[in-house]
Amino acid sequence: MLTAPAGLMIYVATRPVDFRKGADGLALLAKETLGHDPMKGVAVVFRAKRADRVKIVVWDGSGLVLYWKRLDSNGFKWPPIVAGVMRMNAAQLSALLAGMDWTRMHAPRIPQPKALA
Asked: Which one Pfam family would you cite for this protein (predicted)?
């Protein structure tokens, strides 16, 4: 299971990409087309034409990491295919990678502490 470190910005490329691309090709695509550079501390999630595969490119501090996953039984729940990119939080990414409906995952709101009088 992949866990995202706290504060990691996660972006999803909403259009399918050529899954023959490796880590370097996807990082370049993210930087030039989407405007988000994985080398600068963001994770970029890519989808294949079929909804059963996902690739994630992220810099871990010492090198570029490519995470690849294929679901056997069914496909991932993807956002609608539109031009551009969307944000996702760590809980939603975990749900996506588990094959669950990530749109039902929301980060819990933490109430602000009340000031002591």
From this structure: TnpB_IS66
